[in-house]
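Hey all, quick one. A colleague (J.T.) asked me to put the adenosine-5'-diphosphate job into the tracker so the inputs and the C-alpha cells live in one place instead of scattered across chat threads. No bug as far as I know, just bookkeeping. Sequence used:
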Amino acid sequence: MTGKFITFEGPDGAGKTTVMNNVVEKISSLLGDRLLVTREPGGNKISEQIRNVILDRKNTEMDARTEALLYSAARRQHLVETIIPALNAGKLVLCDRYVDSSVAYQGSGRQIGMDEVYQMNRFATEDLLPFKTIYFDIPVQVGLDRIAAHRSKDAVDRLDVEAVSFHERVHDGYLKVAKNNQERFVMIDATKPLSEVIESTISVIKTEAQEFFKE
Ligand SMILES: Nc1ncnc2c1ncn2[C@@H]1O[C@H](COP(=O)(O)OP(=O)(O)O)[C@@H](O)[C@H]1O
Ligand SMILES: Cc1cn([C@H]2C[C@H](O)[C@@H](COP(=O)(O)OP(=O)(O)O)O2)c(=O)[nH]c1=O
C-alpha cells in the first residue's frame, strides 16, 4: 500500500465535518484525484444502508452489542470497497471517524468495554489502523450546544439524543485512547475559532503527508 490513511475523530459537535469540508476545499486543487475523502458509518451502498439502520431514531430497542457489530460491519465493507483500493492506488485518504469512534462510543459510551470493542474491530479491519488520527477535542456540553444551535430537529440522530452522561463517557474514552496511542494521535483544540481549527488541521496534514504536497 503506497497511500496514506488519516482519520478525523472527536465527540459530536466538535466540528469534524465542517473542518473536513473546508480542508478539502483548500487542498483538493493541489491533490486532484490523489485525494479521497470519506466518512463512517457509510461511504458505499451497503455501509450507507447499515448506517440508516443504526442511526434511525425509531430503532429504540437496539442492543449495544448489535450496534457495535453493525458499526464494525459497515466499517469492514467501507474498508474493503473504498479505503484499501484508494490506498493501493497511492491516494491520501481522509476519513471522518473509524475504529476509535467505536472504542469511544460503544466501548466507553455504551459500557461494553473498550478492549472488547477494539478486539472485535481488529477482526473487522485485519488490524489496519490509520497512519495518523487528528482528534478534535471539545468539552461535551460545548459540542452538544453547537449541535442544538445549528441542526434542525429532524437532523438529530439516535446518538445525538443520548444523555449527557453517555457523551461524557465517550469523551473520557477518547482521552484514554489518545493517551494510549500518542504516536498516532494529534490533538487539536476544537473550541478555537473555526478558521484557526481549519488552519491547524491543514498544517498537520501537510506535515504528516508532506509527500503529497511536493511540487
Ligand atoms: N470552531 C468552531 N466554532 C464554532 N462553531 C463551530 C466550530 N466548528 C464547527 N462549528 C459548528 O458546530 C456545528 C457542529 O459541527 P459539525 O461539523 O457538524 O461537528 P461534528 O461533525 O464533529 O459533529 C456546526 O453547525 C458548525 O458550524
Ligand atoms: C463510526 C462510528 C460512529 N458512531 C456515532 C458517532 C455519531 O454520533 C454517529 C455518526 O453520525 P454522524 O451524523 O456522522 O455524526 P458526526 O457528524 O458527529 O460524525 O455515529 C459510533 O457510535 N460508533 C462508530 O463506530
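Adding what we noticed when we looked at it: Residues 69 and 120 are 8 Å apart (CA to CA). The domain at 4-212 is CATH 3.40.50.300 (Rossmann fold).
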